[in-house]
Amino acid sequence: MAAAAVLRGLYRAQPALRRPPAELLWAPRRGHRLTPADDELYQRTRISLLQREAPHTMYIDSYSSRGFVVSGNRVFGPCALLPRSVLQWNVGSHQDITEESFSLFWMLEPPIEIVVVGTGDRTERLQSQVLRAMRQRGIAVEVQDTPNACATFNFLCHEGRVTGAALIPPPGGTLVTSVAQAAVKHQELT
Question: Of 35, 102, 154, 183, which one is least surrounded by beta carbons within 10 A?
Answer without folding.
Answer: 35
